[in-house]
Amino acid sequence: GLSRALNIGCRHALELGFDWVVTLDQDTELSEDYLSEMLLAWSASRISPAIYGCNYYNVSRSHYKFSPSIAPLTRVKNTVITSGCLMHLPAWSSPAGFRDKYSIDSIDHEFCLRARGSGFRVAVNLQSLMVHTIGETANYHKYIKKYSPYTHSIWRVYTRTRNTFRTVIDYYSTEPLWCFRQLIGMSFDLLAIVILEPKKTLRLKAFYSGLADGSLNKMGAPPARFYDEEEE
Q1: 167 three-state secondary structure
Q2: 8 A C-beta contact, residue 152 and residue 227
Q3: What is the pLDDT of residues 145-168, one digit of tens each?
Q4: What are the beta bridge partners of residue 87?
Q5: Cα–Cα distance for residue pair 111/108, rounded to 1 Å
Q6: Contact in structure between 220 and 101 (CB atoms under 8 Å)
Q7: How is residue 57 annotated by DSSP?
Q8: Ramachandran region of residue 104, left (φ > 0), alpha (ψ -120 to 50) or beta?
């Protein structure tokens, strides 16, 4: 899974003597001045975040994650996404890296919450320095598309639900507001399946299986049946 690959890369960077890494997804396009602007904003920040995310233009929603800032301003966050993240490697090694059993989905959020619990600071650069896609581009009306939950394949419905719910269970006592927002988001995901999504029965099955396995801490790669159902 993605979590294991990130851990391999970070471990290799440490062995080579590096103190910082930039983590990326395959569908992210960085601006030419990404690194220089990120370093400038980090240096200007008073909090010196160990996990420093980046604002981005989301292709699937046709808007920016945060309203872009002209100046290199920094905002403290509970979590940031992996892609476009400037990360201090001691923050990776201290809370024992990304959680391998998550495989994909919420590995970044869980890692950020765990790092915060270890005393590291998480923040985002409000400048938009990359183009990124979250979920699949939905063919909804532009107003529905803007506010609707993200569209994912059936197996991703399972992992997204399972990992989010597991994270909520593990961190509700230390990060209650963040966890409450995740539960609201999961409710909208469920509503979107019922109202908007195709293959509703299969998606509902994946959603509720994710809830069950997340509550039982049954993690790892998603069951093969969800891949098979995607092809049917």
Answers
A1: helix
A2: no
A3: 555 556 678 899 999 999 999 999
A4: 21, 51
A5: 5
A6: yes
A7: E
A8: beta
